[in-house]
Amino acid sequence: TIAPTAEETIGLAIALMRKLPWGFEAVKRGEWTREKFYGRELRGRTLGIVGFGRLGSMVARYAKCFGMNVLACDPHVSGEIMERAGVQKATLRQVFKKADVVSIHVLLTAETHGLVKRRHFSDMKNSAYFINTARGELIDERALLDTLSKKRIAGAALDVLANEDPAGGHILKNPLVRYAKTHDNLFIVPHLGGAS
Q1: Are 144 and 122 in contact (CB under 8 A)?
Q2: Is 59 within 8 Å of 103 (Cβ atoms)?
Q3: Is 1 a residue whose pLDDT tops 90?
Q4: Which of 13, 30, 152, 173 has CB 3.0 to 4.6 Å from 147, enough for a Cys bridge?
């Protein structure tokens, strides 16, 4: 599931930055108003990767094909390895402060549970985007919701949510899902990373 999730990550970034889900919703409503959906290009932007294992490093390679600059945080990967991949090694804080797009690619363990906290979202640029294709439990979902509702970042795309139920029961009361129904800075897909 490494390659499909890497591809999905880039797809989510493009969809989010180009406002594609909301453009499609407008067409379904009978609207043809592209001025409302001007987006941003990946080219020239900085992607910040949290977790530079097999998946994170593949996402970095794909991002570089789009002309993105890449920085990554991973305590288990040396700066030399990242440099050979054309990636700048950074701290977690630096990734959130400097990146235009932050993408999470970390395994869920006791140590990484709740890794991304409110302060990390607060560090992000107002124009930045957040993507999570790893696990919902890695982030403070309440803090992400607050960040989005206050328009502190440009948007987020999620492939995962905390406490997932294969039957989908977890989405019924999830505040992020409820928020996404009426706002155009968050979209969520049902854990499609490896579904290819």
Answers
A1: no
A2: yes
A3: no
A4: 152
**What would you measure as the largest C-alpha separation in the chain, in angstroms?**
53
Give the C-alpha separation, 102 to 80, whole Å. Answer: 22
Each residue of 61-90: pLDDT tens digit? 999 999 999 999 999 999 999 999 999 999
Q: The tokens 């889900």 sit on which residue? A: 21
pTM as predicted: 0.97
| Residue entry with tokens 């990373």 | 193
Q: Which of 164, 163, 160 is nearest to 189 (CA)?
A: 160
State the first-to-last Cα distance of the chain, in angstroms, to the nearest integer: 8
State both tokens at 11. 């797809």
Show which residues are catalytic: 135, 164, 191
Cα separation, 47 vs 128, whole angstroms: 10
φ, ψ for residue 57 (rounded to 5)? -70, -30
User: Which among 93, 171, 181 has a CA at the least distance from the CA of 136?
Assistant: 171
Order of strands across the sheet that contains 88-89: 88-89, 69-73, 46-50, 101-104, 129-132, 155-158, 186-188
